[in-house]
Amino acid sequence: MKRRALFVFVLAFVFGLALTAPTAIAKDLTAKELVTEAKKSICEVSVSDAKALFDKGGYIFLDCRTSKEFKMGHIPGAMNISRGLLEFKIAKKVPDKNANIVIYCVVGGRGSLATYTLGQMGYKNVKNLDGGWKAWEKAGYPIE
Predict the structure, then answer these.
(1) Do 24 and 54 reside in the same domain of the chain?
(2) For 106-127, what is each residue's pLDDT tens digit?
(3) At what angle do helices 31-39 and 109-120 cross, to 10 degrees?
(4) Which domain holds residue 96?
(5) How far is the C-alpha of 53 from the C-alpha of 55, rounded, in Å?
(6) What is the DSSP letter of 143?
(7) Which of 122, 129, 105 is nearest to 43 (CA)?
(8) Beta pairing class for 60-63 and 100-104
(9) pTM of the entire structure?
């Protein structure tokens, strides 16, 4: 009888621990802090390096802004998949997980998160454009 009671106690304890564990390790981060954390795990390229990759060719430029932002101007030939749909659309649009991808948004926050996400999804050659669309536009590089 004592063994059974001990077993039930241990089982209840483990079950209770399993229910509370996710909240025990969860962080209370702001959007800015999430971007800072993502930047620790991703590769970023300067606007001049991104332009060199653009000129070299063989890179997919992925605009993760909204379609409305994309229509107002984008890097020539860029593909648009908004940040909110990226996880759901990327496999069909870019099935090759070894593809060379440069991601950008307006200034780099969404791009950092998108770059991190693609890395988590197994994409191996993804870079975020530091400074985003604004840096590209300010540098006077081509736009559509």
Answers:
(1) no
(2) 999 999 999 999 999 999 999 9
(3) 60
(4) 41-138
(5) 5
(6) -
(7) 129
(8) parallel
(9) 0.79
